[in-house]
From TrEMBL, chain A:
Stated name of the protein: ORM1-like protein 2
TM region(s), chain numbering: 20-42, 101-117, 123-140
Organism encoding this protein: Xanthoceras sorbifolium
Subcellular location field: Membrane
Cross-referenced PANTHER family: ORMDL PROTEINS (PTHR12665)
UniProtKB/TrEMBL annotation, chain B:
Classification via InterPro entries: Aminotrans_II_pyridoxalP_BS, Aminotransferase_I/II_large, AON_synthase_class-II, PyrdxlP-dep_Trfase, PyrdxlP-dep_Trfase_major, PyrdxlP-dep_Trfase_small
Annotated family: Belongs to the class-II pyridoxal-phosphate-dependent aminotransferase family.
Coiled coil: none
Domain Aminotransferase class I/classII large: from-to ranges: 102-462
Descriptive protein name: Aminotransferase class I/classII large domain-containing protein
Keywords: Lipid metabolism, Pyridoxal phosphate, Sphingolipid metabolism, Transferase
Membrane topology according to the record: Single-pass membrane protein
Subcellular location: Endoplasmic reticulum membrane
């Protein structure tokens, strides 16, 4: 089964890989397989496993998309050095399909995690906090905003 | 158009994700160990690399460093000597040995075979070296313009089919020093999305606004052009001072020819756009008499405003040229920093270019030029069709001497490269960030100096290595001869 890979007009090598076919499926499959691995390693209830997956997803994606700035290579001479990955994607255009997909995934994970733990308290509070931070960070109005100067440029 | 199997796309993303994670974990431990065990007294010194800049080089490129930058110890002809290297610290540093292995050269841009000693060119080059010495040691405006430079510029202009030409000492500099001179603030550059790094750097350095159109898609170019002409400059909406459309003749990573007739038609329709054609890989290698992609596609050279090219690929020398109208070249001679401040092109190199052009045009009295051109066309078409029959995914159009074979997975890049080297075939593999993340490839450049036996040996080795590594993504066509032999035995 073949798919066509058309070269994009995005010149930023750090983010143009996200526009090729197969990325969304890989993302969802990684989440699913990590749930299976957490279940096998920790021997906990499925609900706890989804909570662990949701929280580690929050930590990893917050660090990679909203904390680390710049690109992992020096070819572009640092023109993206002040921008996080989320701000670089799709050349800064807001509300594209990729951005909408990446906003929906943590919300869906939150719903699955809350449902499978029956909305019980310590997990519910932490999950809600995580998804709140994730979704607010992805709002179009938060483009290039640094609250209290956290993670700002020197 | 690249057709990638869906499962391969998923496994490639997963592999890169895994490599990225491992790199981050190792970086974390390195930071931890450095903080605990070896506190360094570098207070007051600024760091060499900012943040994550060297992450890709340290954690991904260095792991397979032995596949890139292999030193050679002979001229890059069809067969050449590759120096063997070994590493004691898993590829962080490589040490050369005394041993060399003679390998088939499938990586050099030696399209017409001028890279090694040639019976017409080399004696003339050595004579000019004795007469003029290796370098002029000054810029063109000071004392660096000799009789040979003027002859070279006339020769190039005549060969390319334009009224005048100007020659520089380095090919990359030709693009990155000309674009800032021609375009400034308030101009618009529309460039193909897969243009070479030299064009991107020149465009960024010029201060003009840059818009990118989808690779080789004239309809998208028309859309972008219409939108930009209607919009005007950003914020003030005044009309643009100048609009230039930049395309390449043969794209070196895809082996594709540019759709020049359609693009020229669009530029003529809208009347305001100039065209800039970068023929680095196509000059001397395609076309009936070697005059490049304009001859091959039947485009009149008067329709392309600025033609640029390099001498590194087909002419076996160094340097680049710009060909255009007399007024343009006169303007460039007064303003271009590469002409005013950089050392002029070395004289033996200039003599090599003049002799190579004479051989190609047949002015040396023999028909070797026409033979070379016919041979490279034959070799490229034969090799490409054989590879496609074996089931490899090969990019590029017919008649193009550059053929990338798709590899996709990051682990197949060093596997393919090392296995081929073991069987004495040297290939060049290209990965991210020179190509998109998914589309890593092995790029093969066919030369006129490859004989039929060389090509057959290469096909055999690549087929065997391809089976071992698993890159035959398309179904292979059954070989009719083999079936007949089997019938005879039975």
């Amino acid at each position: 089964m073949y798919v066509r890979a058309v070269p994009t007009t995005d010149l930023n090598r750090n983010t143009e890989w996200f526009t090729y076919p197969g990325v969304w499926t890989t993302y969802i499959l990684i989440l699913f397989f990590s749930w299976l691995i957490v279940l096998s390693v920790f021997n906990c209830t499925p609900g706890m496993a989804w909570t662990i997956v949701h929280l580690s997803h929050f930590l990893v994606t917050y660090h990679c998309f909203h904390w680390k700035k710049g690109t992992p290579f020096a070819d572009d001479q640092g023109i993206y050095n002040g921008l996080t990955w989320w701000e670089q994607i799709d050349n800064g255009k807001q509300l594209t399909r990729n951005r909408k997909f990446l906003t929906v995934v943590p919300v869906v994970l939150y719903l699955i995690a809350s449902h499978t733990t029956d909305y019980q308290n310590p997990m519910l509070f932490i999950n809600t906090l995580a998804v709140f931070i994730m979704v607010v960070a992805k709002f179009p109005n938060m483009h290039k905003v640094r609250i209290f100067g956290i993670n700002g440029d020197h | 158009m690249i057709a990638i199997p869906y499962l391969t796309a998923l496994t490639t993303y997963f592999s890169y994700g895994l490599l990225f994670c491992f790199g981050q974990i190792r970086d974390f431990f390195r930071k931890f160990i450095d903080w605990c065990w070896s506190p360094n007294n570098l207070q007051g010194y600024a760091p060499i690399c900012l943040g994550l800049e060297d992450f890709y080089i340290r954690r991904l490129y260095l792991r397979i460093q032995d596949c890139f930058g292999r030193p050679i110890s002979s001229a890059p002809d069809a067969w050449f000597d590759v120096v063997e290297r070994f590493s004691n610290d898993s590829n962080k540093t490589l040490k050369r040995t005394e041993k060399i292995s003679k390998c088939l050269n499938l990586g050099s841009y030696n399209y017409l075979g001028f890279a090694a000693a040639d019976e017409y060119c080399t004696p003339r080059v050595i004579e000019s070296l004795k007469k003029y010495s290796a370098s002029t040691c000054s810029t063109r405006v000071d004392g660096g313009t000799t009789v040979l430079h003027n002859e070279l510029e006339e020769c190039v202009a005549r060969f390319v089919g334009k009224p005048a030409a100007i020659v520089f000492g380095m090919g990359y500099v030709t693009n990155s020093a000309i674009l800032p001179v021609l375009m400034g603030k308030g101009s618009l550059i529309i460039s193909d999305s897969l243009n070479h790094n030299s064009i991107v750097n020149g465009a960024r350095g010029s201060g003009a606004t840059i818009r990118v159109f989808q690779h080789n898609t004239p309809s998208h170019l028309e859309e972008v052009l219409r939108e930009q002409i209607a919009d005007g400059q950003p914020r003030t909406h005044r009309p643009w001072k100048k609009i230039v459309v930049i395309v390449e003749g043969i794209y070196s990573m895809e082996g594709e020819l540019c759709k020049l007739p359609e693009i020229i038609a669009i530029c003529k329709k809208y009347k305001v756009a100039y065209t800039y054609l970068d023929e680095a890989h196509s000059i001397g290698a395609v076309g009936k008499t070697g005059r490049g992609v304009c001859e091959l596609l039947g485009v009149d050279t008067a329709d392309v405003d600025i033609m640029m090219g390099t001498f590194t690929k087909s002419f076996g020398s160094c340097g680049g040229y710009i060909a255009g109208s007399k007024e343009l070249i006169q303007y460039l001679k007064f303003t271009c920093p590469a002409h005013l401040y950089a050392t002029s092109i070395s004289l033996p190199a200039a003599e090599q270019i003049i002799s190579a052009i004479k051989v190609i045009l047949g002015e040396d009295g023999s028909s070797r030029g026409a033979q070379k051109l016919a041979r490279i066309r034959e070799n490229s078409n034969f090799f490409r069709s054989e590879l496609q029959k074996m089931g490899f995914e090969v990019l590029g159009d017919n008649d193009s001497p550059v053929m990338p074979i798709m590899l996709y997975n990051p682990a197949k890049i060093p596997a393919f490269s090392r296995e081929c080297l073991k069987q004495n075939v040297a290939v060049v593999t290209v990965a991210f960030p020179a190509t998109p993340l998914l589309l890593a490839r092995a790029r093969i450049c066919i030369s006129a100096s490859h004989s039929k036996e060389d090509l057959n040996k290469a096909l055999e080795v690549i087929s065997r290595v391809g089976d071992l590594v698993g890159i035959k993504y398309f179904p292979a066509e059954p070989n009719k001869l083999h079936q007949e032999e089997r019938m005879k035995l039975e």
